[in-house]
Design goal:
The chain is α+β, with helices and mostly antiparallel strands and about 200 residues long. Helix content is about 30%, strand content about 30%. Strand 5 and strand 6 form a beta hairpin.
């Protein structure tokens, strides 16, 4: 039991590395928001780079296995700041709710009460979000989540997301300026959908 307790504490320290500095968090697992992706070439799987679906201004790349984590992804810009890290998503090796609750208490102790609850009402999917503004007025989002719902749409187990949303918005605006039809086509589709009166056409058969 003593060895298990020591291992758990060590794992939590690993899970929260990079979040130890005061103010808005910018780094976790050795990956820092705003840093060039090339700086982490030894940590990523190069052949997994792809643009994010419906968000072509951002690309993702899968990380190599890391102690304490089952998987991880780094998201980086394609327009205003090509190759700059804007988001980090990590899935913890431990997927039990007890581990999530212990992490949640550590997060609360460091960052205070979460800004927003994003989970469901039944507790199958739990997600707490903290929102920060750094010294440069950049908005940073931190989400800790646990999911026990057995569905493909959701990442099961425990995971964390850390993103600089201000920079991601700038990337989107840059992409839309380069490709004006992107946003216009989406708005047109919404307008056309509102004109459909016979909703039965949306029913599966």
């Amino acid at each position: 039991m003593k060895k298990a307790a020591i291992f758990l504490v060590a794992l939590m320290v690993l899970a929260l590395q990079g979040l130890a500095h005061a103010g808005a968090p910018r780094e976790i697992a050795g990956i820092r928001l705003g840093a060039p992706l090339e700086q982490y070439r030894d940590l990523i799987q190069e052949d997994t780079r792809i643009p994010v679906r419906h968000m072509k201004y951002i690309s993702e790349v899968q990380m190599k296995p890391m102690d304490g984590y089952k998987s991880g992804y780094i998201y980086y810009g394609n327009c205003t700041s090509p190759g700059t890290v804007f988001k980090i998503k990590l899935k913890y090796l431990r997927d039990d709710k007890e581990f999530f609750n212990e992490l949640l208490e550590l997060f609360k102790g460091k960052f205070g009460k979460a800004s927003e609850y994003r989970g469901d009402a039944f507790g199958g999917y739990i997600a707490w979000k903290w929102s920060f503004t750094d010294e440069h007025k950049n908005k940073i989002s931190l989400i800790l989540q646990h999911n026990s719902i057995d569905e493909e749409e959701y990442t099961s187990g425990n995971s964390i997301k850390l993103a600089i949303t201000t920079a991601m918005d700038k990337e989107r605006q840059c992409y839309e300026a380069k490709y004006p039809g992107t946003r216009r086509d989406a708005n047109t589709a919404q307008d056309q959908s509102k004109e459909i009166k016979n909703l039965k056409i949306f029913l599966p058969e």
